[in-house]
Fold:
Amino acid sequence: ELKLHGKLVPLLIFTATPPRHDQITALLDSVATHPHIKMIIKFHPACKYPVYEEWKAGTPKSLLKNLIFVHGRYNVYDLISACDLCVLAAPSTTGIEAVALEKPLVQLSGLSPANAPYSFVDQGVALEMTPADLGRHLAQKTDFKKAISLEAIDRFLINELTQADGADDRIIHIMQKVIKAAHRQIVPLTIPQ
Structure:
């Protein structure tokens, strides 16, 4: 059972190819040195299990404190519901779910290609930060919700849900899972360390 009560819980979402450790060391270091933070690192389901194991094993022991690694079998909607902040290493549709669940969203800069086709930052529903800046803001207990416009979020959700261009069934399926996760009785997540 995770003991997340009283902790600031960022959920860091990786795509199928996780970033190199050196790209996020400043963030991991900040998390490791501040006991009020417990960060969940969620690996994409398409990430091969050996890559996940290698990434975990390659994380310096000094940085493991306050980190929880998750791969595969955990429901991303439950994880989003349990977190205080959703952090994307690269643009991902998971950002839509985070916004729909009213979680502040941060998109890390410098980890994805400059020509990424989609940006939550450009649409005003995410903050863009370097890993070092995010680490500093987590250490300072920044209220990320106050930094994102509620009007931009409303506009974004209306656009996403009404201009789906053939993705109606996918959006309905996602929203059903989001609603289920949002209304489920909050139970402690059990994730083996």
Observations:
- Helices lie at 21-33, 49-57, 76-82, 94-100, 131-139, 150-162, 168-183.
- Residues 16 and 48 are 8 Å apart (CA to CA).
- The longest helix spans residues 168-183.
- The radius of gyration is 16 Å.
